[in-house]
Amino acid sequence: MVLELLINPKKVSGKPWEMFFIGFMYSFIALFLSLWIFKGYASIVMVTFTVIASVPFVHRVIELEEKKDLVIKKEKNLLREHKKAISIFMFLFLGFVSSFCLLYVFLPAEVTQSAFGIQIETIVSVNPDMPTGNFVHSFNLLSTIYMNNLKILFFCVAFSFFYGAGAIFILTWNASVMAAAIGAFIKNNLLNITSAVGYLQITSLGLLMYLTHGIPEIVAYFIGGLASGIISFAVIRHDFSGKRFKHIILDALDLILISMILLLVAALMEVFIVPFII
What we know:
This protein is mainly α.
Protein backbone atom coordinates (compact mmCIF):
# COMPACT_ATOMS: atom_id res chain seq x y z
CA MET A 1 0.00 0.00 0.00
CA VAL A 2 2.83 2.44 0.85
CA LEU A 3 4.63 1.71 -2.43
CA GLU A 4 1.37 2.17 -4.31
CA LEU A 5 0.91 5.62 -2.79
CA LEU A 6 4.50 6.71 -3.39
CA ILE A 7 4.44 6.24 -7.18
CA ASN A 8 1.72 7.91 -9.24
CA PRO A 9 1.37 6.52 -12.82
CA LYS A 10 0.03 9.85 -14.09
CA LYS A 11 3.11 11.72 -12.84
CA VAL A 12 5.56 9.04 -13.96
CA SER A 13 4.12 8.99 -17.51
CA GLY A 14 5.81 12.35 -18.12
CA LYS A 15 9.17 11.03 -16.89
CA PRO A 16 9.17 7.26 -17.62
CA TRP A 17 12.95 7.08 -17.10
CA GLU A 18 12.35 7.49 -13.36
CA MET A 19 11.01 3.94 -13.34
CA PHE A 20 14.52 2.70 -14.14
CA PHE A 21 15.63 3.72 -10.65
CA ILE A 22 12.46 2.32 -9.08
CA GLY A 23 13.04 -1.01 -10.84
CA PHE A 24 16.70 -0.98 -9.82
CA MET A 25 15.77 -0.36 -6.18
CA TYR A 26 13.02 -3.01 -6.10
CA SER A 27 15.22 -5.76 -7.55
CA PHE A 28 18.32 -4.75 -5.56
CA ILE A 29 16.45 -4.95 -2.25
CA ALA A 30 14.63 -8.12 -3.33
CA LEU A 31 17.88 -9.96 -4.05
CA PHE A 32 19.45 -9.18 -0.69
CA LEU A 33 16.23 -9.97 1.19
CA SER A 34 15.98 -13.33 -0.57
CA LEU A 35 19.62 -14.17 0.26
CA TRP A 36 19.07 -13.15 3.87
CA ILE A 37 15.76 -14.91 4.51
CA PHE A 38 15.51 -17.72 1.92
CA LYS A 39 19.08 -18.30 0.75
CA GLY A 40 18.39 -21.82 -0.53
CA TYR A 41 15.56 -20.57 -2.75
CA ALA A 42 16.92 -17.10 -3.56
CA SER A 43 16.70 -17.61 -7.35
CA ILE A 44 12.90 -17.72 -7.21
CA VAL A 45 12.28 -15.66 -4.08
CA MET A 46 14.12 -12.59 -5.41
CA VAL A 47 11.85 -12.64 -8.47
CA THR A 48 8.79 -13.05 -6.25
CA PHE A 49 9.79 -10.17 -3.96
CA THR A 50 10.43 -7.94 -6.99
CA VAL A 51 7.02 -8.83 -8.41
CA ILE A 52 5.26 -8.18 -5.08
CA ALA A 53 6.78 -4.68 -4.98
CA SER A 54 5.86 -3.98 -8.63
CA VAL A 55 2.31 -5.36 -8.86
CA PRO A 56 0.42 -2.41 -7.24
CA PHE A 57 1.99 0.08 -9.63
CA VAL A 58 1.59 -2.12 -12.73
CA HIS A 59 -2.02 -2.77 -11.71
CA ARG A 60 -2.74 0.97 -11.58
CA VAL A 61 -1.07 1.63 -14.94
CA ILE A 62 -3.17 -1.05 -16.69
CA GLU A 63 -6.31 0.25 -15.01
CA LEU A 64 -5.49 3.75 -16.26
CA GLU A 65 -4.95 2.46 -19.81
CA GLU A 66 -8.35 0.70 -19.76
CA LYS A 67 -10.02 3.99 -18.82
CA LYS A 68 -8.33 5.65 -21.80
CA ASP A 69 -9.98 3.07 -24.06
CA LEU A 70 -13.37 4.32 -22.88
CA VAL A 71 -12.53 7.98 -23.53
CA ILE A 72 -10.26 8.07 -26.59
CA LYS A 73 -12.02 6.94 -29.77
CA LYS A 74 -9.33 7.26 -32.44
CA GLU A 75 -7.12 4.19 -32.52
CA LYS A 76 -4.05 6.19 -33.59
CA ASN A 77 -4.36 8.50 -30.59
CA LEU A 78 -5.00 5.54 -28.31
CA LEU A 79 -1.86 3.73 -29.47
CA ARG A 80 0.11 6.93 -28.87
CA GLU A 81 -1.20 7.01 -25.31
CA HIS A 82 -0.34 3.33 -24.79
CA LYS A 83 3.27 4.14 -25.78
CA LYS A 84 3.63 6.01 -22.49
CA ALA A 85 2.68 2.91 -20.49
CA ILE A 86 5.03 0.72 -22.53
CA SER A 87 7.87 3.20 -21.90
CA ILE A 88 7.17 3.05 -18.17
CA PHE A 89 7.23 -0.76 -18.17
CA MET A 90 10.37 -0.86 -20.31
CA PHE A 91 12.35 1.39 -17.98
CA LEU A 92 11.10 -0.66 -15.02
CA PHE A 93 12.36 -3.81 -16.75
CA LEU A 94 15.74 -2.24 -17.58
CA GLY A 95 16.07 -1.30 -13.92
CA PHE A 96 15.56 -4.96 -13.00
CA VAL A 97 18.12 -6.13 -15.57
CA SER A 98 20.73 -3.54 -14.55
CA SER A 99 20.45 -4.32 -10.86
CA PHE A 100 20.54 -8.11 -11.27
CA CYS A 101 23.40 -7.89 -13.80
CA LEU A 102 25.49 -5.59 -11.60
CA LEU A 103 25.04 -7.88 -8.62
CA TYR A 104 25.86 -10.95 -10.71
CA VAL A 105 29.16 -9.41 -11.82
CA PHE A 106 30.31 -8.11 -8.43
CA LEU A 107 29.00 -10.65 -5.94
CA PRO A 108 31.29 -13.58 -5.00
CA ALA A 109 30.86 -16.75 -7.08
CA GLU A 110 29.21 -18.77 -4.29
CA VAL A 111 26.67 -16.00 -3.64
CA THR A 112 25.99 -15.67 -7.37
CA GLN A 113 25.31 -19.41 -7.56
CA SER A 114 22.76 -19.14 -4.76
CA ALA A 115 21.07 -16.07 -6.22
CA PHE A 116 21.04 -17.10 -9.88
CA GLY A 117 21.31 -20.90 -9.79
CA ILE A 118 18.01 -21.64 -11.56
CA GLN A 119 18.56 -18.82 -14.05
CA ILE A 120 21.96 -20.27 -14.98
CA GLU A 121 20.37 -23.71 -15.48
CA THR A 122 17.74 -22.12 -17.73
CA ILE A 123 20.38 -20.40 -19.85
CA VAL A 124 22.34 -23.63 -20.30
CA SER A 125 19.22 -25.58 -21.28
CA VAL A 126 17.94 -23.09 -23.89
CA ASN A 127 21.21 -21.80 -25.37
CA PRO A 128 21.60 -23.44 -28.78
CA ASP A 129 24.65 -23.00 -31.01
CA MET A 130 24.11 -20.07 -33.34
CA PRO A 131 24.52 -21.32 -36.94
CA THR A 132 25.75 -18.82 -39.49
CA GLY A 133 25.89 -19.11 -43.25
CA ASN A 134 23.43 -22.01 -43.54
CA PHE A 135 20.01 -20.72 -44.58
CA VAL A 136 18.11 -23.94 -43.81
CA HIS A 137 19.53 -24.20 -40.29
CA SER A 138 19.01 -20.48 -39.73
CA PHE A 139 15.39 -20.72 -40.85
CA ASN A 140 14.77 -23.70 -38.55
CA LEU A 141 16.33 -21.81 -35.65
CA LEU A 142 14.24 -18.75 -36.52
CA SER A 143 11.06 -20.85 -36.44
CA THR A 144 12.03 -22.40 -33.10
CA ILE A 145 12.85 -19.06 -31.48
CA TYR A 146 9.74 -17.35 -32.85
CA MET A 147 7.42 -20.14 -31.70
CA ASN A 148 9.04 -20.13 -28.26
CA ASN A 149 8.58 -16.35 -28.06
CA LEU A 150 4.92 -16.71 -29.09
CA LYS A 151 4.49 -19.26 -26.31
CA ILE A 152 5.84 -16.78 -23.76
CA LEU A 153 3.56 -14.09 -25.24
CA PHE A 154 0.60 -16.44 -24.81
CA PHE A 155 1.42 -16.92 -21.13
CA CYS A 156 1.85 -13.15 -20.66
CA VAL A 157 -1.57 -12.59 -22.22
CA ALA A 158 -3.15 -15.38 -20.15
CA PHE A 159 -1.56 -14.30 -16.85
CA SER A 160 -2.50 -10.69 -17.45
CA PHE A 161 -6.11 -11.58 -18.27
CA PHE A 162 -6.67 -13.83 -15.26
CA TYR A 163 -4.52 -11.98 -12.73
CA GLY A 164 -4.59 -8.37 -13.99
CA ALA A 165 -0.88 -7.61 -13.59
CA GLY A 166 0.13 -11.28 -13.64
CA ALA A 167 2.40 -10.93 -16.68
CA ILE A 168 4.89 -9.00 -14.52
CA PHE A 169 6.03 -12.30 -12.96
CA ILE A 170 7.05 -13.77 -16.33
CA LEU A 171 8.72 -10.52 -17.35
CA THR A 172 10.63 -10.20 -14.07
CA TRP A 173 11.78 -13.79 -14.44
CA ASN A 174 12.98 -12.99 -17.98
CA ALA A 175 14.80 -9.95 -16.59
CA SER A 176 16.67 -12.15 -14.10
CA VAL A 177 17.59 -14.69 -16.81
CA MET A 178 18.76 -11.97 -19.20
CA ALA A 179 20.77 -10.32 -16.42
CA ALA A 180 22.41 -13.64 -15.55
CA ALA A 181 23.33 -14.22 -19.21
CA ILE A 182 24.81 -10.74 -19.60
CA GLY A 183 26.52 -10.94 -16.22
CA ALA A 184 28.04 -14.36 -16.96
CA PHE A 185 29.41 -13.15 -20.30
CA ILE A 186 30.94 -10.04 -18.73
CA LYS A 187 32.34 -11.87 -15.70
CA ASN A 188 33.90 -14.67 -17.77
CA ASN A 189 35.52 -12.29 -20.25
CA LEU A 190 36.87 -9.84 -17.68
CA LEU A 191 39.27 -12.39 -16.20
CA ASN A 192 42.12 -11.47 -18.56
CA ILE A 193 41.26 -7.78 -18.95
CA THR A 194 43.34 -5.18 -17.13
CA SER A 195 42.53 -1.85 -18.82
CA ALA A 196 39.46 0.35 -18.36
CA VAL A 197 38.94 0.32 -22.15
CA GLY A 198 38.84 -3.48 -22.07
CA TYR A 199 36.21 -3.44 -19.33
CA LEU A 200 34.10 -1.04 -21.38
CA GLN A 201 34.44 -3.13 -24.55
CA ILE A 202 33.41 -6.37 -22.83
CA THR A 203 30.48 -4.73 -21.05
CA SER A 204 29.27 -3.09 -24.27
CA LEU A 205 29.56 -6.38 -26.17
CA GLY A 206 27.62 -8.25 -23.50
CA LEU A 207 24.83 -5.67 -23.57
CA LEU A 208 24.71 -5.69 -27.38
CA MET A 209 24.52 -9.48 -27.57
CA TYR A 210 21.43 -9.75 -25.41
CA LEU A 211 19.67 -6.38 -25.54
CA THR A 212 19.74 -6.16 -29.35
CA HIS A 213 16.98 -8.74 -29.60
CA GLY A 214 15.99 -8.69 -25.92
CA ILE A 215 14.49 -5.19 -25.88
CA PRO A 216 12.01 -5.74 -28.76
CA GLU A 217 11.08 -9.10 -27.21
CA ILE A 218 10.32 -7.58 -23.83
CA VAL A 219 8.46 -4.64 -25.37
CA ALA A 220 6.32 -7.19 -27.24
CA TYR A 221 5.56 -9.08 -24.02
CA PHE A 222 4.64 -5.86 -22.24
CA ILE A 223 2.35 -4.86 -25.11
CA GLY A 224 0.66 -8.27 -25.04
CA GLY A 225 0.28 -8.14 -21.26
CA LEU A 226 -1.12 -4.60 -21.46
CA ALA A 227 -3.64 -5.63 -24.13
CA SER A 228 -4.90 -8.56 -22.09
CA GLY A 229 -4.91 -6.52 -18.88
CA ILE A 230 -7.11 -3.88 -20.53
CA ILE A 231 -9.66 -6.56 -21.45
CA SER A 232 -9.43 -8.00 -17.93
CA PHE A 233 -10.26 -4.65 -16.33
CA ALA A 234 -13.09 -4.10 -18.79
CA VAL A 235 -14.58 -7.47 -17.80
CA ILE A 236 -14.21 -6.67 -14.09
CA ARG A 237 -15.97 -3.33 -14.62
CA HIS A 238 -18.69 -5.07 -16.70
CA ASP A 239 -18.01 -2.71 -19.60
CA PHE A 240 -19.91 -4.91 -22.04
CA SER A 241 -21.98 -2.19 -23.67
CA GLY A 242 -21.89 -2.61 -27.47
CA LYS A 243 -19.52 -0.10 -29.04
CA ARG A 244 -17.43 0.52 -25.91
CA PHE A 245 -16.50 -3.12 -25.38
CA LYS A 246 -15.99 -3.66 -29.11
CA HIS A 247 -13.61 -0.69 -29.14
CA ILE A 248 -11.64 -2.20 -26.23
CA ILE A 249 -11.41 -5.59 -27.97
CA LEU A 250 -10.24 -4.04 -31.25
CA ASP A 251 -7.62 -1.98 -29.42
CA ALA A 252 -6.37 -5.09 -27.60
CA LEU A 253 -6.20 -7.08 -30.85
CA ASP A 254 -4.18 -4.28 -32.48
CA LEU A 255 -1.75 -4.37 -29.56
CA ILE A 256 -1.39 -8.17 -29.72
CA LEU A 257 -0.76 -7.99 -33.49
CA ILE A 258 1.94 -5.36 -32.90
CA SER A 259 3.53 -7.59 -30.25
CA MET A 260 3.61 -10.57 -32.65
CA ILE A 261 5.31 -8.46 -35.33
CA LEU A 262 7.87 -7.21 -32.79
CA LEU A 263 8.62 -10.80 -31.77
CA LEU A 264 9.27 -11.71 -35.40
CA VAL A 265 11.66 -8.76 -35.72
CA ALA A 266 13.40 -9.82 -32.49
CA ALA A 267 13.76 -13.42 -33.73
CA LEU A 268 15.23 -12.21 -37.04
CA MET A 269 17.74 -10.07 -35.15
CA GLU A 270 18.68 -12.95 -32.84
CA VAL A 271 19.34 -15.34 -35.74
CA PHE A 272 20.86 -13.07 -38.39
CA ILE A 273 22.45 -10.15 -36.48
CA VAL A 274 23.54 -11.34 -33.01
CA PRO A 275 25.92 -14.07 -34.35
CA PHE A 276 27.94 -11.35 -36.11
CA ILE A 277 28.26 -9.42 -32.84
CA ILE A 278 29.76 -12.52 -31.23
